[in-house]
């Protein structure tokens, strides 16, 4: 009987520790990053970030389908077409879950080298655009993004994609933390969280970002 109690005790303790580790990992990963404030450039330039519009979320074989996926692709393509015409820098951002614990709990979504991790095939492919990976919600967690934007002397970020409550939110706040001017295209952002886009948009505005309806990039 004592042996059984010990087994149950250590089993319960192990489960609790695992739960605490998972909670700590999620909490850490959700926090927006902070970085060096951007420089003031003589000629301000903008970049369009397409965040996590991937086959696993919006494609025909999506593992976690967003019900607004088609609209998000359509709005993003309108923005991509304008960016290409105006010579605006484009960066495609894709989420890659390479942590085995997170991968287990997300059923293999966005696994490295998985076809579902690629950007939605319907998105316009802008020549000279780059694709960067991230393994945390904030795209700035990949230092290559910050370095690339500095190289291009970018001071304004135009953002569309998924998920409004997580990766889009964290990236926008990471950008604001660095002094970027941030514009979020509300019609090109979706969320599967309990928060509505309207409430998220209000929070973004309060944080200092500009929120726009439609899909028109202002001069």
TrEMBL record:
<keyword id="KW-0812">Transmembrane</keyword>
<keyword id="KW-1133">Transmembrane helix</keyword>
<dbReference type="InterPro" id="IPR000868">
    <property type="entry name" value="Isochorismatase-like_dom"/>
</dbReference>
<dbReference type="GO" id="GO:0016787">
    <property type="term" value="F:hydrolase activity"/>
</dbReference>
<keyword id="KW-0472">Membrane</keyword>
<protein>
    <submittedName>
        <fullName>Cysteine hydrolase family protein</fullName>
    </submittedName>
</protein>
<dbReference type="Pfam" id="PF00857">
    <property type="entry name" value="Isochorismatase"/>
</dbReference>
<feature type="domain" description="Isochorismatase-like">
    <location>
        <begin position="46"/>
        <end position="196"/>
    </location>
</feature>
<dbReference type="InterPro" id="IPR050272">
    <property type="entry name" value="Isochorismatase-like_hydrls"/>
</dbReference>
<feature type="transmembrane region" description="Helical">
    <location>
        <begin position="7"/>
        <end position="30"/>
    </location>
</feature>
<dbReference type="InterPro" id="IPR036380">
    <property type="entry name" value="Isochorismatase-like_sf"/>
</dbReference>
<keyword id="KW-0378">Hydrolase</keyword>
